[in-house]
Fold these 2 entries.
Entry 1:
Amino acid sequence: MTEHQHLVADLGRKARAAFAVVSQASSAQKAEALRLAAARLRANQQLILDANAADMTAGRERGLSDAMLDRLMIDAPRLESIAAAVEKVSVLEDPVGQVIDRTEQPNGLVMERIRVPLGVIGIVYESRPNVTADAAALGLRSGNAVILRGGSEAISSNKAIHEAMQDGVIAAGLPGDAMQLVQTTDRQAVGAMLKAVEFIDIIIPRGGKSLVARVQEEARVPVLAHLDGICHTYVDQAADQDKAMVIAVNAKMRRTGICGAMETLLIDQDYPAPGPLLRALIDAGCEVRGDDAVMELDPRTVAADAEDWNTEYLAPILSVRMVDGVEEALDHIAVHGSHHTDVIVTEDDAAAQRFIRAADSAIVMHNTSSQFADGGEFGLGAEIGISTGRLHARGPVALEGLTTYKWVVRGTGQVRP
């Protein structure tokens, strides 16, 4: 074994032992652990802010972008938001033990599917120190043990947040090893986690495209992730013009750097007001890259090339195309989409239903902004990420997404003939 394999194996053994305890803990005990963890975050405010200041100084010296520094920064209000989010998870309904369905066979056997924790979850993430708290809280509330590996740029912040939360968990009588942090910033530790099938049950990456691509390419452990957020909004010919304008501007410009931001706008060629729609976007500060028909509508647009339709900009840039109805919009999404979030704006119920049925996306929306693609907005509390795959969990992954199920069969002495 290499040094990093030994490290991950040690973390994994401790996590397995902790999982045996937290998976059987009562809902009340897990909730109390998270309330105490939130209290420790508040009590340790100055330690956490000092640690974050060190990360910020190092980040500036490394030349991190303003956007990266903003994601990294913690001040007193942000720390309070982190603590409040942990408290919010503590009051969410505990999924462990929920009966998904129940049937009784003709021979009297009663068969139930019951939610159980996934096990040991490895979470690999970048930049945002709040993920340390969110992931640890969601993992514990759902009865799992987590091994956290944050980005090197946030190592001091992550250590301070992790230590505070771990203290709260221990104070509640649960094992601190239920939430462990990889203390090294060496990238080889990530590689060891991705291959630790004996110790880790699932890996969840949360970060940029290069991180997620690496995890998906190298992992032998099952992965729950999304690679791109190439989200589309299709404005149908029967769209309400006021709704279309407000939705499109919000979907692109509210926050351009999140995975739910619109990256491509598709406009029906029979929609009566495409010009004002483009003007509203450009006036809001968005660069519009369009096809020939779009470029004729506003001289401030620029030509889109083939790669634009496959690009997650995460910036105030938008690709726009005119299409011949809902079917061509669906065809475009099928070729260029990433199965994340796609939207139709229309007052035609038949067109809306056709789009909803046919769009092969984790989240499909009608007459609203793709910026709602967020676990908190879905009423799920903190989210650990958005899954665009087909297996296990899809869309915002929160408590329920961190469980699986087992069958429980109850009899009264039946034997199989």
Entry 2:
Amino acid sequence: MRKLNLIALDEQPDPIAAYLGVAGWDVHVATSLSAAQQLKRMPQPRALVCLLLMRHAPLAQLAEIEACMRHWRQAEWIAICGAGVMQTAPLRDLLVNYLFDYHTLPVDPDHLVRTAGHAYGRALLRAEQADGTMVSDSLGMVGTSAAIGQLRVHIRKVAATSAPVLIGGESGSGKELAAQAIHRVSVRAGGPFIAVNCGAISPSLAHSELFGHERGSFTGAVGERCGLIEAAHGGTIFLDEIGDLNLDLQTNLLRFLQEKTISRLGSARSLRVDARVVAASHVNLEEAVAAGRFREDLFYRLNVLAVTVPPLRERNGDITMLAEHFFRQCTGDTARRLDGFSQQALAAMMAHDWPGNVRELFNRVQRAVVMTDRRLIAATDLGLAREPAHIQIRLDNARTQAEREAIHLSLQRVGRNVSKAARELGVSRMTLYRLMEKHGIALD
């Protein structure tokens, strides 16, 4: 039976609850927001409709109302309100931004029942979409493209050893996420993961930050300090942008890689540290070696196992999935009603080159969620709209993009079942496999 939560703030809910009960709804009533807390403890169905009944404008309860909506984010909300509510700006904003629909008193029972049915259908569609969307796997990576599938294979292989790893890739492509994944599936997963941005360390404090110091070793050293490498004992130290380390620190790091010992600044004794080194750089370290900016022997010590994170433009089919994932992240702490992306926004994202990679995508989605006044995020909200005169897209490119998107969405809807997707798309299984290979769409 379809479930409906009826929350009455200042009105007797009995007549409306009776209307809905006769129409086949399983109605659970709360006569106040505090009573609604009890409803939160009940098992919730996949699709839920919430009805908010308020004759007057409860401005003092606005924060509590929004908290209720945040708790039942999967629900579709309908309001029944007095005419005076419409004259209050904060309540008007609530109705426009967060609700599926609203009714004014007195209620037309038939109209309300129809609205509730439409809202339930909408909630069911949202639940099915969420069920069919692959968010991430045990590695914490979102995507089903061939490029990300190959990266998962490489990560699992290098995670099985304790040798140093050098991660390459463009800025913003997710090198730290790859390092975290290596740590997460390795035997060191129970130990610490310490991330260090080598480019952000002050040169004067770099030795102390990485290797620690003893009391009195320099002005201001009022006590001994454990360095970041020592803090990673039993786990993994991730050295991001390692090409920015000065040559003196490169020498000390090379000694640690060779001997597994460090010396704090101001100390003559060596400390044994068991930490795996995973390093990353967006610059070509071989070129840095040739230019004398990076030690050749350190490069070969680090480059035992190499992993390359693909840029977003090479991850066909992952862009919309990542955008939806970031959308859910950015809307998780707000009750504001946002339904996702418009088709024009999706097309603009697919056509964009993403020079800033995954970081750029996240930033654009986050900004759009905050700034948009629409229910569906548009290309202009993402900063990806172009003047019509400048849009030059070949017909074959448009057809390729549409074909890729249709296959991707169909596989999502049917839970990655190729046979079902082939029937839905009207092609044979072999044809679908061929098209998936053409567009770089993988099942795992």
